[in-house]
Amino acid sequence: MTHSSVCEICGQGHIVEQCDPLDVTYKGVTSAVPQYFLVCDACEIEQSGSEQGKKNRRAVTAFRKSVDGLLSGTEIKALLEQYHLTQADAAQLFGGGPVAFSKYVNDEVAQSESMDTLLRLVRRSPSVLAELAAMKGISVMTASKISHQKKTHSETMRIVRRRFAFKIDHVEYANSDERSMDIRSSRGPVAGRTRPVRSTRSFEQYPSS
Ligand SMILES: [Zn+2]
What we know:
Blueprint: E1 15-26, E2 29-40, E3 46-47, H1 50-67, H2 73-82, H3 87-94, H4 100-105, H5 113-124, H6 126-136, H7 143-174, H8 179-185, H9 200-205
Helix pairs in contact: 5-6
Bound molecules: zinc ion.
The site of zinc ion has 8 residues, from loops.
């Protein structure tokens, strides 16, 4: 919600978001849960907003999850990040449906107790994740795979840089009087590693290539 929206009731003031804690009791536990609303700074009339309604529902769900001893949305988000899992990956691994993890992470829905137990097991042990992934036939990034892939990626980049440098050196050598054209054309397809780039002009210069 923009903080500068003009109040639709009085047409004078601007509506701003405010937050007041509200005591919510769940299973005998009472806690002050933040509740958001909009209020006009001129007529002071409180208004409801869909965004505030959503935030309020999430705040209550988060409180209920904490009373039930379930992982919070933030904790589930951290778990996914720990293993570099997307929400779609998580749904495939753990079940719950395609949008389940979006709802768990945003505290829109409380995960079941069994889902919570599974997530806690995986959080404690990467080998549990590996076993689960193997059971589901899904490839996941374990810590060792991630470090290996990073190494492979940097290795690839070194090779690419070396080849690119070679191409520029080579073309400049072959067409030393036409450098500007050839540096540009060296980014295009290369006919062969040992030959100059076949731009139109260099092709004319080397018809036999
Ligand atoms: Zn107003």
